[in-house]
Amino acid sequence: MNTETSAAENSPGTPSPGAKVDIQALNEKIQKESAFLDLLKLEMEKVIIGQHDMVEKLLIALLANGHILLEGVPGLAKTLAIKALAGCIDVDFSRIQFTPDLLPADVVGTMVYSPKNQDFAIKKGPVFANFVLADEINRAPAKVQSALLEAMQERNVTIGGETFKLPEPFMVLATQNPIEQEGTYPLPEAQVDRFMLKVVLDYPKHAEESIIIRNNVGITPFPKPNKVVNTDAILNARKTVREVYMDEKIEKYIVDLVYATRDPKSYNLEDLVELIGFGASPRASISMALTAKTYAFMNHRGYVIPEDVRAVAKDVMRHRIGLTYEAEAENVSVEEVINKVLNTVEVP
User: Fold this and answer.
1) Pairing of strands 162-165, 20-22
2) 13 — pLDDT class (breaks 50, 70, 90)
3) Residue 341: what pLDDT?
4) First to last CA, the chain
5) Could you tell me whether strands 322-323 and 171-176 are parallel, antiparallel, or unpaired per DSSP bridges?
6) Residue 105 CB: number of other CB atoms within 10 A?
7) Model confidence, pTM
8) CATH 1.10.8.80 residue spans of the chain
9) For 30-43, what is the mean pLDDT?
10) pLDDT band for position 2 (50/70/90)?
11) Second-level CATH architecture of 36-219
12) How many angstroms separate the CA atoms of 130 and 168, rounded?
């Protein structure tokens, strides 16, 4: 890539179209400011064996200032990974166990009467933390889900007519179990769209599971992560991520991927027309661009390449595409649809 090239975006921290970017200087800056990520990964891998993709996507969501939804069967270290991430960073962490009897006030807080002062006082809920673990988010009714998702979008909470800003950084890490559907309240499409990424977890490999057994049943105590990063480093990294250079061709590639889910016929994907009920939203385009920049940043690179986009595309789009009854009848999954899109749309 040339040392100087034209910028193609107009987002905060990036040059306007037509401006020149010194890629070499930007690379040096990114390499310096992303160095802390290697230490952060090492600390997390002391606790989380395998599941490298989950760890990577947690860090992407953190640096891209988004929220993440983890889906997998019980026992795949979803909760442990989130706790480990919080343990590596000097942040406030809270956990909300979602159950059918949970109330919105249990999440955001409420007004409590004090007999001593003969007045109402505001009691803030567990959502007032940097990292909020929403465990089994699909176990709580719609009112509770909405209370949390409003806080995710607006980054503030209103209690008793008074509005409170949530702390920075703020990140919701939600988990859900895909197999037990009795007594669950699936997230509506409009609400699940607010999660930047949805990561589907698989079982660990054979060799990794042996290490997991040793760590949990051995004489030595279970390893604990050390705090190696402060919130200032995270907030600075978020600003730097937006400076990562994205060429016009990469930007067009992202738009093409998203548009192919809305108008498959225009991209020679006629076989998907009857399978896709609705395509990915504009939020998918924004999230894909920002997470691709973050992926480049995590790889100590100052510019985005097509592989960065492809690395995050599935996690960005899998919860933003609706399939038709025909797709369900033919046992076609969202993963297969996205794979066809990725394999057909021309890579720049």
Assistant:
1) unpaired
2) very low
3) 94
4) 14
5) unpaired
6) 15
7) 0.85
8) 237-344
9) 88
10) very low
11) 3-Layer(aba) Sandwich (3.40)
12) 6
Least confident of 3-12, 135-144, 152-161: 3-12
Count of C-beta atoms within a 10 Å radius of residue 181: 9
Query: Where in the chain are all domains bearing CATH 3.40.50.300?
Result: 36-219
CA atoms within 13 A on the CB side of 166: 28
Closest to 144 measured CA to CA, from 178, 98, 194: 98
Under DSSP, the state recorded for 140 is: S
Give Cα 107 to chain centroid, integer Å. 20
Given the candidates 3.50.50.60, 1.10.8.80, 3.20.20.80, 1.20.970.10, the CATH classification of the domain at 237-344 is 1.10.8.80
Residue found under tokens 């108008």: 263
User: Which one, of 45, 84, 56, lies nearest residue 212 by Cα?
Assistant: 45
Burial class (CB in 10 A: 0-12, 13-18, 19+), 296: buried
Residue type, 346: E
What's at 219, amino acid-wise? I
Q: In angstroms, rounded to a whole number, what is the distance separating the alpha carbons of residues 311 and 59?
A: 14
